[in-house]
Amylosucrase
Amino acid sequence: MTTFDERLNAELPRLRSLFGRIYGDLPEAGRALDGLVQDLRASWDARPAELKALDDEREADPDWFASNQMLGGVCYVDLYAGTLDGVRARIPYFRELGLTYLHLMPLFLAPAENSDGGYAVSSYRDIRPDLGTMADFTALAAELRRNGISLVVDFVFNHTSNEHVWARGALARDPLYDDFYLIFDDRTMPDRYELTTREIFPDDHPGSFVPLADGRWVWATFHSFQWDLNYRNPAVFRAMAGEMLFLANQGVNILRMDAVAFIWKQLGTTSENLPEAHLLLQAFNAVCRIAAPSLLFKSEAIVHPDDVVVYIRPDECQLSYNPLQMALIWNSLATREVNLLAQALEQRHNLPPHTAWVNYVRSHDDIGWTFADEDARQFGIDGYEHRRFLNAFYVNRFPGSFARGVPFQDNPRTGDCRISGTTASLAGLEAGDPGAVDRIVLAHSIILSTGGVPLIYLGDEVGQLNDYGYLDVPGHAEDSRWVGRPPYPAERYATRDDPETRAGELFARFRGLIDVRRRTPAFAGGQLTAFHTQNPHVLGYQRGEVLVLANFSEHAQTLDAERFGGLSADRTDLVTGRPMPLGAGLTLAPHEFVWLA
């Protein structure tokens, strides 16, 4: 057990050094840091005793999140349960499934119409009224904690909505907030910045800036109603640290750090993945180590694989989404070949100690093909053409496709787009393809066995399909990502115990895999060793003494006995309990996978 003063003495030199590297010798930086130290002490004094006890527990077990007991689920409060009280009512089901980590999608106050699915935050201290109150949120966090479930929320810290009190103050030229955003009197500086920045949502607005009613221009990387914060102003850092610690004291255990690549702007660069972005994250990390030491960060960086991994370190973001593995699972299902996925597991999977991937089959967002072109070239694959193929395949524009995805930001001229849809619809269940259930389970078997925190989009475990009703909802019709965010699939959950239904078959197989994972110590941690199957359709890797093999083809595949030379021949499949000796080789049925101990 460490005291506040011990943690402050240990971390303050690091925080002071980071401030110096970020802000130089700006007098206002020193004042902000002095004020921040006062904020940290006040926040710690206000931290509930139950959370302080959790701090002690997790400081004693820094790898708690890498346990094979960990299982994540993610959902929208309104779509999945109506309200925060509705989420509390679903805790018995979360325990039935085995969840230890629950990510609630954006639920803070946001503009009623334009909110980018809640990622335009108007207040970090108020819940959307239709979902409940902050008191409801705090009570839910406590109830989840009592049931062994860590609460995860999105922390949108690159930008706020244009309705946030800071933004309203900046618009009114309030001196307190005048420098909270990147606002310019004319186009001179925006034009210079836009020489090197890229358009993220060109359908919303060209470039990186949008005009204000008073003739000024504000930086808006994403949507016109999302104004980027100016972290060159140390007062912004202090203010955002206060919001972060407030949420930690309500019982949040993990913050999904949204859009980490964009938080620092530099003229003459892309203003993405700059060194100062890492310094800012490390400074926020130091803040939490002092006043909320059990709080973890999860980075959201959907960028080149080399840029994703540099955010993952114990003193920065301890957790990170694994977008490369996600994209390459879908690539392997479409191509029936595992070359890119096997390469990624061998070369890009293992992480530093005390960190972990969050592995997922799909998220609330679209699927983008984030593999590196240089990786693809090693197999003679042209990245541009291959992405065109994958886009066509997953929106059913390719002969023989089983997928029923919906294009997001489709550009027919270039063939570029990203893919929206639920797991079941993308894997063939909507199309009635006979291999659909096996594909769904196969994809989830990878995230459950490669190490880290497996994350299930809740409802996928019972095979929820695309929701085309989004086309009739104001504010959703122009954003096809909503097709993959269906409301709670009540009928499917009602039949989850009936093995004669698709939902029942899927749920039983999910539960079986989750139970096996929990019983298998080799699935703890994140280290993985490649196993070369020499079969283009069969993925292989080892987790300790467990050998994982997975057939991504709809045809049976055989591995010769010589493939297993040097391994013990007496094996049992943990999934089925069947003996599977390797002395005579091994044949895998279509879409079959085995966890051989």
